[in-house]
C-alpha cells in the first residue's frame, strides 16, 4: 500500500474510535449516574458538610470520577470502564457517620476519612471493599468495636484508626491481614488482651496501640513478627513480664512499652535487637538489674528505664552506647557508683539518674561531655565535691544535684561559661559562698540552694539576675539583710529565705516585687515593723514570716494583697500600741484559705471582718490573749474546716449559729472561759471529727443533738460544769475513739448505748455523779485499751462479769463509788491490765485468787469492809469462842462484822502491820510521816505491791542472783537498777535503794517520794511503777522494764543509730509527760532532775519520764523544802544558784538542755574553753556562725531540706526553753504545742499516738 493510503486508513480508524466513545458517553448519559455515584451520594447523605467541600457531588453527573475527593481509574489495563479506586475526604471538617453504602465501592483501594469529626461505629459492610489497601480512619470520633469484617481485607497494608473512641478488644480476625505492614490504633479505648493471632502478621512493620486499656501479657510468640520495626504499647494495663522472645525481633528500631504494669526483669535477650534506636520501658514495675547486654545496642539514641524498681548497679557496658543522646534511669533502686564509662558517650545531652540509691562521688569524667545540657543526679547518696569541670560545659542549661551529701564549695565560676536556667543544689552539705557568676549569661530562672551550710550575703550577681523567677535559699547560714534591690527582678515570683540568719527590717522596697507570689522569711532574726508597702504585692499568695521578732501592729495594708491564700505570722511579737489587735482588714482580700496568728501576744477580739474570708479553710489563733466571744457570723465561711482558738481568754456562750459551719472538722476551744449551755445546733456539724471544749465553764445538759455528728472521733467535754443525764444518743457515734466527760456534774445512769462505740480506745467518766449499775454493755467495747475510768461517782450494784471481755484494757478505775457484791472472776481474762482500783466501795467476799489481783496494791482494795483475801489477808472462819454473828439479810453487814471479829483476834504485831500497810498506801501525807517516824530497826514483815504475778523478795534475789553486778542495767544517785525476770516470765526493772540502816537517810525519803507520786500517775509518757517490795530495811522499786535503756546511754553510746524522726518523737513524748506532771496532776509535780539519763525508752523507742528520786510535790500540806541540790550539773537552771527554789521553769530549762543534746549529740558538760556547758557552747556557736546546720549532730542525715529545717526549728524551741530569764521560758504545755506545730510545718511525722497529754483520772 502506498504511504498515502496508509495515512488515510489511520485517520479513518481514529474517527471510528471517537465515534464509539461519543456513542458510549451518550448511552451513559441516557442512563444517568452510575451505581458507584449512587453509593457515594448515600455516603454524603450521612455526612454534615458545613464548609461545602462536597458541593460538586452532582447527582446529574454520569460518573463521580470528577467529584472532589474521588479518584477513578480503569478497572484493568484492557477495560475502558472507570471505577472509583480512591476516596480521600481527609481534613474536610466533616461530621456525621459513615454509611453502610461504603460497602458498594468494591473496587476501592484507598479510603481516607482522617482528621474529621465522624462518629458512631464503622459499618461492617466495609469488609466488602475487598480490594482495599489503605484504610485511614484516624482522628475522628468513631466508637464501638472494630468490626471483625475488617479481617477479610486480605490486600490491606495500612490500617490507621488512632485518635478515636473505639472500644472492646481487637478482633481475632485481625490476624488474617497477611499483607498488613502498618497498624496504628493508639489513643482509643480498646481493651482486652492482644489476640493470639496477632503474631500471624509476618509483614507487620509498625504496630502502635498506646493509650488504650489493653490488659494481659505480651504474647510469647511475639518473636514471630519477624518484620516488626516499631512496637508501641505505652499507657495500657499490660501485665506479666517482657518475653525473652522479643530478642528475636532483630529489625526492631523502637520498643515503647512505658506506663504499663509490666513486672519481672528486663530480658538480656533484648541486647540482640541491635537496630534499636529507642527503648522506653519506664513507669512499670520492672525489677532486677539493668542487663549488661544493653551495651550491645550500638545504635541506641534514647534509653528510658525510669520509674521502675530496678536494683543493682549500673553496668559499665552502658558506656558502649556511643550514639546515645538521652539516658534516664531515674526513680529506681539502683545502687553502687556512677560508672565513669558514661564519659565515653560523647553525644550525650541528657543524663537523669535522680532518685536512686547511688553512692560514691560524681565522676569527673562527666565533665568531658561537651554536649551535656541536662544533668540530674539528685536524691541519691552521693558524697564528695562537685567536680569543677562542670563550670566549663557551655551547653549546660539544667544542673540538679539536690538531696545528696555533697560537700565542699560550689564551683566558683559556675554559670560563667554556660547558659544555665535551672540550678538546684539544695539539701546537701555545701559550704562557702554563693557563686557570683550563676547568672552571668542572664538566663537563670530557677535557683535553689536551700538546706546547705552556705554563708555570707546574697551576691550582687544574683540580685541582678533579671530573668530569675524563683530564689530559694531556705535553711542555710546566710547573713546580712534582705537586699533592697531584689525587687528589680521583675519576674521574681518566689523568695524563700527562711531558716537563715538574716537580720534587720524588711525594707519598703519589697513593695516593688509586683510578680511575687511566695514570700517565706520564717525562722530568721528579722525585726522592726512590717512595712505597709507589703500591701502592694498584688500577686502574693503565700506569706510566712513566722518565728521572727517582728513587732508593732500588723499593717492593715497587708490585706490589700487580694490573692493571699496562706498567711502565717505566728511566733512573733506583734503587739503595737498595747493591746495589739488583729486587724479589722484581715479579709479585705477574698482568697485567704490558711490563717495562723498563733503564739503571739495578740489581744482584743476577733474582728468582724474575718467573716469576709469566704474561702478560709483553717483559722488558727491558739496561744494568744484574745478576748471577747466567738463571732456569731463566723460560719458564713462555708469552707471552714478548722477553728482552733484554744489557750486564750474567750468568754461567753457558743452561739447557735455554730451549726452553720457545715464543713467543720476540728473545733478546739479548750482552756478558755466559755460559759452557758452548749447549743443544740452543734449537731448540724456533720463533718466534725474532733471537738475539744475541755477546761471551760459550760453548764446545763449535754445536748443530745451533739450525737448527730456521726463523724466524731475525739470528743473531750471534760473539766466543765455539765449536769443532767448523758443522752443515750451517744451510742450513735460509731467512729468515736476517745470520749472524755470527766470532772463535770453529770448524773443519772450510764447509758448502755455506750456499748455501741466499738472503736473507743479510752473512756473517761470519772468525777461526776453517775448512779445506778455499771452497764454490762460496756463489756462490748472490745477496742478499749487506754483506760476505763468510772471513779468518783455514785455507782452501785455489782461489777458486771462482762468487763472481763475487755482484753486490751490497761487501766480500770472503779474506786470511790458504792459498788457491792464480789469482784468478778472473769477479770482473769484481762492480760493487758496494768492497774485496777476498787477502793472506797462496798465490795464483799474474797478477792478472786488471780495473780493479778493477789499482787495488787493494798490501796486498790481499801475501804471495802466486806472484802478479804489477796493482799488484805486470808478470809478465815470465826473462832469457836467468838460470839455468833447475827443472821441478817444484808450480806455486806454480815461480812463486815465477820472481818471485824477476825481482826479483833489478831495479835498486836499483825495489827500494826495491817495499819502500816493501809496507811502507807493512802493518799494523805500523814501516812508518809508516820512511816518516816517509825524507827529503822522496827522489824516488819515483807510488804509487796504489784499487779504482776506472785513473787517474793526471795524471787527477786534469785532473779538477780543476789543483786549481782552482771544484772545491773543502770545507776543513779538514788540507787542501782537491776533487770529481773519474775517467775511469770515478766521482765521488770528493780531499783534497789540504800536504806536508812546504811547511813543514807535521803534514800528512804526519795523512795517514799517516788511511791507517793508514781503510785497515782497514769500517763503513757511517765514510767510505770508496777510496785515495790520492802524487806528488812531494803527498799526495792519495781518499774516497767525499758529494754532500750536511757536516752543518755543511747545518745552517747558507741553505736548510736537514732535518726531524727526517733529523736523528735522522744523529745515530744518527754515533753508530754512533763506537761502532764506540771499541768494535770493534783497537786502539781515538778520533776527537779530532768536529764537524758532520766528519759527511758521502750522497745519502740517511746519515751517515758522516770526517776522521781528528787521529785517534789508542790502545794502539798506538811511538806518541807529539800536541802539537797535539785538537778544534775549541766541541767540546772541559772536562777537556782541564788534562789535555791525549784519552779516549773527549772524543769523547762533542763528539758531544753535535753533538746540540745538530741540536736547536737553533745553532752551537757563541755570543756571550759568552750563555755563549760552545752547551753553556753550553743550560744557561742550561734554568735560566731549563726543558727545553721553546722551545729547539728553529724550522725544525723541532713540531706533533706525539710528535715534540717525542722531540726533548726526545734533548736529555736530549745533556745527559748533555756532562756536566761525564767519569765521568757514557755510552759511545758506551750512547748508541746510548739513541737507539734513544728512537725506540721516540717517533717510531718505521724505523731497521732503521742498527742494525748491528759491524765487517767
UniProtKB/TrEMBL annotation:
Transmembrane stretches, by residue range? 898-921
Q: Which domain of life is it from?
A: Eukaryota
EC number(s) on file? 2.7.11.1
Fetch the PROSITE patterns from UniProt.
PROTEIN_KINASE_DOM (PS50011), PROTEIN_KINASE_ST (PS00108)
The membrane topology noted for this protein in its Swiss-Prot or TrEMBL record is: Single-pass type I membrane protein
Sorted keywords for this record are: ATP-binding, Cell membrane, Glycoprotein, Kinase, Leucine-rich repeat, Membrane, Nucleotide-binding, Phosphoprotein, Receptor, Repeat, Serine/threonine-protein kinase, Signal, Transferase, Transmembrane, Transmembrane helix
Please tell me one Gene Ontology term that the record gives under cellular component: plasma membrane
User: Which part of the chain is the Protein kinase domain?
Assistant: 963-1236
Q: Give compartment(s).
A: Cell membrane
Family per similarity comment: Belongs to the protein kinase superfamily. Ser/Thr protein kinase family. Belongs to the RLP family.
- The protein in question is named non-specific serine/threonine protein kinase
Amino acid at each position: 500500500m502506498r504511504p498515502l493510503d496508509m495515512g488515510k486508513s489511520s485517520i479513518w480508524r481514529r474517527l471510528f474510535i471517537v465515534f464509539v466513545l461519543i456513542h458510549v458517553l451518550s448511552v451513559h448519559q441516557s442512563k444517568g449516574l452510575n451505581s458507584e455515584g449512587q453509593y457515594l451520594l448515600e455516603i454524603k447523605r450521612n455526612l454534615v458538610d458545613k464548609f461545602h467541600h462536597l458541593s460538586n457531588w452532582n447527582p446529574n453527573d454520569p460518573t463521580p470520577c470528577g467529584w472532589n475527593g474521588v479518584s477513578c481509574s480503569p478497572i484493568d489495563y484492557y477495560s475502558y470502564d472507570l471505577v472509583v479506586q480512591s476516596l480521600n475526604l481527609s481534613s474536610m471538617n466533616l461530621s456525621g457517620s459513615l454509611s453502610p453504602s461504603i460497602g458498594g465501592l468494591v473496587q476501592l483501594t484507598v479510603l481516607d476519612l482522617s482528621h474529621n469529626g465522624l462518629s458512631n461505629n464503622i459499618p461492617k459492610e466495609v469488609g466488602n471493599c475487598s480490594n482495599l489497601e489503605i484504610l485511614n480512619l484516624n482522628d475522628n470520633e468513631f466508637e464501638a468495636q472494630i468490626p471483625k469484617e475488617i479481617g477479610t481485607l486480605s490486600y490491606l497494608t495500612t490500617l490507621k484508626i488512632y485518635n478515636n473512641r473505639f472500644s472492646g478488644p481487637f478482633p481475632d480476625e485481625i490476624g488474617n491481614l497477611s499483607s498488613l505492614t502498618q497498624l496504628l490504633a493508639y489513643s482509643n479505648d480498646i481493651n482486652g488482651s492482644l489476640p493470639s493471632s496477632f503474631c500471624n502478621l509476618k509483614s507487620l512493620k509498625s504496630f502502635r496501640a498506646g493509650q488504650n486499656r489493653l490488659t494481659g501479657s505480651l504474647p510469647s510468640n511475639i518473636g514471630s513478627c519477624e518484620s516488626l520495626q516499631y512496637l508501641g504499647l505505652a499507657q495500657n494495663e499490660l501485665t506479666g513480664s517482657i518475653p525473652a522472645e522479643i530478642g528475636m525481633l532483630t529489625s526492631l528500631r523502637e520498643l515503647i512499652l512505658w506506663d504499663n504494669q509490666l513486672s519481672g526483669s528486663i530480658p538480656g535477650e533484648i541486647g540482640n535487637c541491635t537496630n534499636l534506636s529507642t527503648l522506653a520501658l519506664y513507669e512499670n514495675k520492672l525489677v532486677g538489674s539493668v542487663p549488661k547486654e544493653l551495651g550491645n545496642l550500638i545504635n541506641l539514641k534514647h534509653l528510658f528505664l525510669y520509674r521502675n524498681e530496678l536494683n543493682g548497679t549500673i553496668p559499665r557496658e552502658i558506656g558502649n552506647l556511643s550514639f546515645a543522646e538521652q539516658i534516664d534511669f531515674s526513680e529506681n533502686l539502683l545502687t553502687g557508683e556512677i560508672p565513669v564509662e558514661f564519659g565515653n558517650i560523647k553525644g550525650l545531652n541528657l543524663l537523669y539518674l535522680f532518685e536512686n540509691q547511688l553512692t560514691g562521688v560524681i565522676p569527673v569524667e562527666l565533665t568531658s561531655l561537651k554536649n551535656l545540657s541536662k544533668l540530674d543526679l539528685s536524691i541519691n547518696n552521693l558524697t564528695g565535691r562537685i567536680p569543677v569541670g562542670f563550670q566549663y560545659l557551655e551547653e549546660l542549661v539544667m544542673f540538679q544535684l539536690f538531696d545528696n551529701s555533697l560537700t565542699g564549695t560550689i564551683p566558683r565560676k559556675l554559670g560563667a561559661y554556660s547558659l544555665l536556667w535551672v540550678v538546684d543544689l539544695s539539701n546537701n552539705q555545701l559550704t562557702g559562698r554563693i557563686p557570683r557568676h550563676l547568672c552571668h549569661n542572664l538566663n537563670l530562672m530557677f535557683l535553689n540552694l536551700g538546706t546547705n551550710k552556705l554563708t555570707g550575703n546574697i551576691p550582687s550577681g544574683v540580685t541582678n539576675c533579671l530573668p530569675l523567677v524563683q530564689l530559694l535559699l531556705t535553711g542555710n547560714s546566710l547573713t546580712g539583710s534582705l537586699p533592697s534591690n531584689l525587687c528589680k527582678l521583675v519576674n521574681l515570683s518566689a523568695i524563700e529565705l527562711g531558716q537563715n540568719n538574716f537580720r534587720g527590717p524588711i525594707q519598703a522596697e519589697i513593695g516593688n516585687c509586683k510578680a511575687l507570689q511566695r514570700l517565706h522569711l520564717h525562722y530568721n532574726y528579722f525585726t522592726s515593723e512590717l512595712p505597709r508597702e507589703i500591701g502592694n504585692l498584688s500577686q502574693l499568695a503565700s506569706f510566712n514570716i513566722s518565728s521572727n521578732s517582728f513587732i508593732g501592729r500588723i499593717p492593715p495594708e497587708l490585706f490589700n494583697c487580694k490573692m493571699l491564700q496562706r498567711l502565717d505570722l505566728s511566733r512573733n511579737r506583734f503587739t503595737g500600741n498595747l493591746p495589739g489587735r488583729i486587724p479589722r482588714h484581715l479579709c479585705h482580700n477574698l482568697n485567704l484559705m490558711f490563717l495562723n496568728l498563733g503564739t503571739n501576744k495578740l489581744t482584743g477580739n476577733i474582728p468582724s471582718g474575718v467573716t469576709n474570708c469566704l474561702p478560709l479553710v483553717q483559722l488558727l489563733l491558739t496561744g494568744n490573749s484574745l478576748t471577747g466571744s466567738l463571732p456569731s457570723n463566723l460560719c458564713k465561711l462555708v469552707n471552714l474546716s478548722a477553728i482552733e482558738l484554744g489557750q486564750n481568754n474567750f468568754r461567753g456562750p457558743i452561739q447557735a449559729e455554730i451549726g452553720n459551719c457545715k464543713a467543720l472538722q476540728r473545733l478546739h476551744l479548750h482552756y478558755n472561759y466559755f460559759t452557758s449551755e452548749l447549743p443544740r445546733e452543734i449537731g448540724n456539724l456533720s463533718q466534725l471529727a474532733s471537738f475539744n471544749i475541755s477546761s471551760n465553764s459550760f453548764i446545763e445538759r449535754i445536748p443530745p443533738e451533739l450525737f448527730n455528728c456521726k463523724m466524731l472521733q475525739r470528743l473531750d467535754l471534760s473539766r466543765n460544769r455539765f449536769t443532767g443525764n448523758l443522752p443515750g444518743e451517744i451510742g450513735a457515734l460509731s467512729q468515736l475513739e476517745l470520749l472524755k466527760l470527766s470532772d463535770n456534774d453529770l448524773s443519772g445512769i450510764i447509758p448502755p448505748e455506750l456499748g455501741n462505740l466499738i472503736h473507743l480506745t479510752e473512756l473517761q467518766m470519772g468525777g461526776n455523779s453517775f448512779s445506778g449499775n455499771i452497764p454490762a454493755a460496756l463489756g462490748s467495747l472490745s477496742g478499749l485499751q487506754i483506760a476505763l475510768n468510772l471513779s468518783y461517782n455514785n455507782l452501785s450494784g455489782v461489777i458486771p462479769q462482762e468487763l472481763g471481755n475487755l482484753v486490751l484494757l490497761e487501766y480500770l478505775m472503779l474506786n470511790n463509788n458504792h459498788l457491792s457484791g464480789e469482784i468478778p472472776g472473769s477479770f482473769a481474762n484481762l492480760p493487758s491490765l496494768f492497774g485496777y482500783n476498787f477502793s472506797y466501795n462496798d465490795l464483799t467476799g474474797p478477792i478472786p485468787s488471780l495473780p493479778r489481783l493477789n499482787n495488787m496494791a493494798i490501796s486498790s482494795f481499801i475501804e471495802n469492809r466486806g472484802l478479804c483475801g489477796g493482799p488484805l489477808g486470808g478470809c478465815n472462819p470465826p473462832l469457836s469462842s467468838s460470839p455468833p454473828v447475827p443472821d441478817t439479810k444484808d450480806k455486806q453487814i454480815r461480812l463486815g462484822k465477820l472481818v471485824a471479829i477476825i481482826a479483833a483476834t489478831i495479835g498486836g504485831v499483825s495489827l500494826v502491820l495491817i495499819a502500816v500497810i493501809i496507811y502507807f498506801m493512802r493518799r494523805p501525807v500523814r501516812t508518809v510521816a508516820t512511816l518516816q517516824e517509825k524507827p529503822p530497826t522496827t522489824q516488819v514483815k515483807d510488804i509487796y505491791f504489784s499487779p504482776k504475778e506472785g513473787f517474793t523478795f526471795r524471787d527477786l534475789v534469785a532473779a538477780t542472783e543476789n543483786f549481782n553486778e552482771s544484772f545491773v542495767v543502770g545507776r543513779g544517785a538514788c540507787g542501782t537498777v537491776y533487770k529481773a525476770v519474775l517467775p511469770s516470765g515478766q521482765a521488770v526493772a528493780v531499783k534497789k535503794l540504800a536504806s536508812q540502816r546504811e547511813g543514807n537517810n535521803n534514800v528512804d525519803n526519795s523512795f517514799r517520794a517516788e511511791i507517793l507520786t508514781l503510785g497515782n500517775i497514769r500517763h503513757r509518757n511517765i514510767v510505770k511503777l508496777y510496785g515495790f517490795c520492802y524487806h528488812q530495811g531494803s527498799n526495792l522499786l519495781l518499774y516497767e522494764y525499758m529494754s532500750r535503756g536511757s536516752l543518755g546511754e543511747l545518745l552517747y553510746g558507741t553505736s548510736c543509730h537514732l535518726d531524727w524522726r526517733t529523736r523528735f518523737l522522744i523529745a515530744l513524748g518527754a515533753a508530754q509527760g512533763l506537761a502532764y506532771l506540771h499541768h494535770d496532776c493534783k497537786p502539781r509535780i515538778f520533776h527537779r532532775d530532768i536529764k537524758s539519763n532520766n528519759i527511758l525508752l521502750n522497745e519502740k523507742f517511746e519515751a517515758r519520764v522516770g526517776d522521781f528520786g528528787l521529785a517534789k510535790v508542790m502545794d502539798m500540806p506538811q511538806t518541807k523544802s529539800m536541802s539537797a541540790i535539785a538537778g544534775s550539773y549541766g541541767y540546772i537552771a541559772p536562777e537556782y544558784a541564788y534562789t535555791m527554789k525549784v519552779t516549773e521553769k527549772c524543769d523547762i530549762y533542763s528539758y531544753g538542755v535535753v533538746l540540745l543534746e538530741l540536736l547536737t549529740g553533745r553532752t551537757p558538760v563541755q570543756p571550759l574553753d568552750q563555755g563549760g556547758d552545752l547551753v553556753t557552747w550553743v550560744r557561742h556557736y550561734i554568735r560566731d556562725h549563726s543558727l545553721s546546720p553546722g551545729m547539728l549532730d553529724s550522725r544525723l542525715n541532713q540531706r533533706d531540706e525539710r528535715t534540717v529545717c525542722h531540726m533548726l526549728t526545734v533548736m529555736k524551741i530549745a533556745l527559748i526553753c533555756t532562756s536566761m530569764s525564767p519569765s521568757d521560758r514557755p510552759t511545758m504545755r506551750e512547748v508541746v504545742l510548739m513541737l507539734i506545730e513544728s512537725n506540721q510545718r516540717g517533717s510531718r511525722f505521724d505523731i497521732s499516738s503521742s498527742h494525748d497529754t491528759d491524765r487517767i483520772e
